[in-house]
Structures are given as structure tokens and as C-alpha cells.
Amino acid sequence: MAIYIALMHYPVYDRQARVTVTALTTLDIHDVARLARTYGLEGFYVVTPLQSQQTLARRLIDHWVTGRGAEYNPTRKEALSLVRMAEDLEAVLTGIEQEQGRKPKIVATTARRFAQSRSYGEMIELLRAGGDAPYLILLGTGWGLTREVAEGADYVLEPIEGKGYNHLSVRTAAAIILDRLLGGEAR
Amino acid sequence: MAIYIALMHYPVYDRQARVTVTALTTLDIHDVARLARTYGLEGFYVVTPLQSQQTLARRLIDHWVTGRGAEYNPTRKEALSLVRMAEDLEAVLTGIEQEQGRKPKIVATTARRFAQSRSYGEMIELLRAGGDAPYLILLGTGWGLTREVAEGADYVLEPIEGKGYNHLSVRTAAAIILDRLLGGEAR
Q1: pLDDT tens-digit profile of A69-83?
Q2: SS3 of A107, please?
Q3: Please, which residues have CB within 8 angstroms of residue A149's CB and are 6 or more apart in sequence?
Q4: How many CB atoms lie within 10 A of CB B36?
Q5: Is the dihedral of CA A163, B31, A184, A141 positive or negative?
Q6: Through-space distance between the first and last CA atoms of chain B, rounded to whole angstroms
Q7: Measured over all CA atoms, what is the biggest interatomic distance in chain B, rounded to whole angstroms?
Q8: Beta bridge pairs of residue B136
Q9: Which of B38, B75, B171 sits opposite A171 (nearest CB)?
Q10: Residue A98 has what DSSP assignment?
């Protein structure tokens, strides 16, 4: 399996369900990079159209991968080495195509249900049956991926249904999603 | 099942394996509270011996539970209503005993293995067999719970073994631990 993950800062909803660009949270980059390394992903794309935010993220990553942080915390270097920047989803798809020879199937994650929604069990079977085909898991920041992004994906994962509560941070949701899909492989 | 979780800021290790007190991370309080609500826990204890840090945490919690945050984000209020402060583990045990009529069994989580280490499968069976007995899951900040705390626990959960990488944030580790233990119940 060649699995990638992308943290989308655009296009996502704000609290009034308007399409917006969210600001980077550096902690999300650390947390998702560490998850990506834990579950053996091929790469982690941080997606934002804002040049200033891309520059900020590159500085953070450089500090830990080639700067003083690399010596201070080698395990963090290992995780952040997986991070790549992209300005939009199209650029992510192109990047993965360059590495894998074909575009990935897109797996959107949302707190809502869609026609393409799949259970975790179904998605695990699809990943296994897919052989070495690349997959890209999309995470939304803010109030989640837009309907257009979810509907344009090949698959949408079913929401993480808690006991009547469905408001996790993107960091902790990413942890649960990756563990459900790949925890059996990593153990 | 009556399950509690505690985020321990003391006694934990620092990067040189010395026993230390770590600073609160407000984001951890939000993330773990949201997880506690998602998985139907009875309560979430934030444990620190530092009075100034307890005051800080109480201000944060009050803002979201009774202050302006409660109106701004009612779902956050629901999650943060589960948070209690305690100065040490003993105070947590006493608090739970007052609510449940008996002290909880302690389940420590660490990145190392101990004689009492249990697999997730074993722990799920123990929780189910325990009926309404209270359990307390301990999370360590910094470089993790001290050996004494782990060895003093009734059970220690096996580490989350990634693909040769075992360096998750406490937030994302908490998400994986709760989903593995209780995700089947919540679904």
C-alpha cells in the first residue's frame, strides 16, 4: 500500500458554512507528521494557497529536518521529513503521480454522510485489494472539507460517531482514522 | 462501564529521564475533553501540583463552561464540562471514589513494556467483565509516566507500536487508546 495524507486549509468551511482558507497550526503539522511516520505513510501534504503560510511551514520543517531541531530531536526529524507543501489538491495529485506513476484514489474524511460513504471495514478491504495503488486521505481543517471536495472524492469515510458527539480536533480525528485503517497492519 | 481519564503533569520524565513537572498545554485539555465526551467517559482529570497552573486551567475551563465561550461554542462546553482539576493521583482516586463509591482500577499507558502490560484485546475483555466498576486511564505528558506510576498501576496498556516509530503526541495517543478500547462500544 502506498498511502498519503493531506491536511487541507482550503477549500474548507468556517463556522457559518462559508468556504474559507484556515491558518496553519504548527502543532497539527507535528502531530500528523508523527502519525504519518507511525503508520508508514509515503508522505504528508500540507495544502494552503497562501504563499506566506507556505513560507512559514517550510521554515518550521527546515528547522526540524536540516536545522538545529534535527540534532535536538532526531525522531521529530524522521517524522517531519515526510512533509511536503502544496498550493492545492491538484498539486498534491501531480506530486503523487510523479512518485508513484499514477494518480491516487482520493479518500475524503468528513463528519457528515455522503453517497460514497464507506465503513472502515469496507475501506480496509478496498486498500488491501488495491495492491500497490496509491491512495490519498484528505483531512479538512476548520469546519471540514467542502461538499464539492467530498463529492469529488473516490470514497468518503464514514464519520467517527461518538456517543452523540462528533466534534474532534483534526489531529485526534487523524489519529483515529489512521489507526482504524492501518493499525492492524502496524501491529 | 464507568471510565475516567487523567492527564498527568507530574510525576513524569523529561528528555533526560529525570522526574519533572510539565507545563499545561491548553490544547491538550481541549483535545482530551473532546475525546472524553466522544467516548462517553465519566470525567477527565487534569493533574498538576502547581497552584498557578491549576488556576490557569480553571480560568480556561470556566470561560468555556460558564463564560462567553459557552455561548460561542456549545459543543466545547459539553466537552469541557467533564474536566476536573486535581493536585495528584491520590486526589483523583478520592474524587472518583466519592462519585462511584469505590476507588477505580488504574490503567497506565506508556511507550514501554512492563510485567503488567496487557494487549488491547485483553483490556477490552477486562473492562467488559468489570461491569460497572470504575477504571482510570492515566496519560503521561513530557517523556511519559514514571516507572513507579506504571508499576503501581493495576494494568499497563501495551505501547502503540508503529512501524518502528513510537513517538506520538499525548493528544493523538489518547485518541488511539480510547478508540481501541471504546470505539467498538461507541459505534
Answers
A1: 998 889 999 999 999
A2: strand
A3: A8, A11, A89, A108, A138, A140
A4: 27
A5: positive
A6: 16
A7: 48
A8: B4, B106
A9: B171
A10: H
How far apart are the C-alpha atoms of B106 and B153, rounded to whole Å?
5
Looking up cell 511516520 gives A37
Instruction: Show which of residues 72-111 on chain A sit within 8 Å of chain B, judged by CB atoms.
Output: 75-76, 78-79
State whether the Cα torsion A90-A95-A97-A98 is positive or negative: positive
Instruction: Find the closest chain A residue to B73 by CA distance.
Output: A15
**Which grid coordinates belong to B186?**
461507541
Q: Which of A26, A58, A134 is nearest to B169 (CA)?
A: A26
Q: How many alpha carbons fall within 13 Å on the CB side of residue A70?
A: 10
A16 interface with B at CB cutoff 8 Å: no
Determine whether A18 is exposed, middle or buried from the number of CB atoms within 10 Å of its CB (0-12, 13-18, 19+): exposed
Query: Looking at this protein, which amino acid is placed at residue A24?
Result: L
pLDDT digits (tens, 9 = 90+) for A113-158: 888 899 999 999 999 998 889 999 999 999 999 999 999 999 999 9
| CA gap A69, A63 in Å, rounded | 5
The model's pTM is 0.95
B38: left (phi over 0), alpha (psi -120 to 50) or beta: alpha
DSSP state of A88: S
